[in-house]
Design a protein that fits this description.
This is Lipoprotein LpqH. InterPro entries: LpqH. One of its GO terms (cellular component) is membrane. There is one protein chain. The chain contains two helices and ten strands. It has 160 residues and is of the alpha+beta class. The protein has two domains: 44 residues, no CATH class; 106 residues, no CATH class. A five-stranded antiparallel beta sheet has the order 2-1-10-9-8, with no helix packed on it. Strands 3-4-5-6-7 form a five-stranded antiparallel beta sheet, with no helix packed on it. Helix 1 packs antiparallel against helix 2.
Length: 160
């Protein structure tokens, strides 16, 4: 709480700096910055990724996700995409996280993994701007395409 109070004092002090904006607008901008910083710090304490980033594990092993998350509301859903060298990650989830429509996890150990109406399962939860999706994805190993692959996954994405 001390950090929030200190940040508010700093924000109020910054509002007095010269600018073409009114003092009220400067204070609103400063408080918006403070709120964003506090939210980011709170997310970090909860173990959530930074805004625009993601964390993913497949079969308990952490996977590298280097792209930036793009979150786009589409009707009642949130479409999340992260471009990457491994094909990227994509998620279509209800904005309130009550339903997962599809998940694409890219290629993991040479296997393209996904969840869709054709197979796999996933559930989601939402904490602020962070979506957490977990379940079982399916794929096919090109070395043995007749034997389906099923892998547990957990994904946390914080929208910008």
């Amino acid at each position: 709480m001390l950090a929030v109070g200190s940040a508010a004092i700093v924000a109020a002090g910054l509002a007095g700096c010269s600018s073409d904006k009114s003092a009220s607008d400067q204070a609103k901008d400063a408080m918006s910055s403070v709120t964003s910083a506090v939210t980011s710090a709170t997310d970090a304490v909860k173990g959530n990724p930074e805004p625009g980033h993601a964390k993913m594990t497949v079969d308990g092993e952490e996977q590298d996700i280097s792209g930036v998350a793009v979150c786009t509301p589409t009707g009642a859903d949130m479409t999340i995409a992260i471009a990457g060298e491994d094909g990227g990650v994509s998620v279509v989830v209800a904005e309130d996280a009550s339903k997962v429509t599809s998940v694409g996890l890219g290629t993991v150990d040479g296997v393209g993994l996904s969840v869709s109406p054709a197979g796999g399962d996933a559930t989601a939860s939402k904490d602020g701007k962070t979506y957490k999706v977990k379940g079982n994805a399916i794929g096919a190993d090109l070395a043995n395409p007749m034997a389906p692959v099923n892998k547990a996954f957990e994904l946390a994405i914080t929208c910008p």
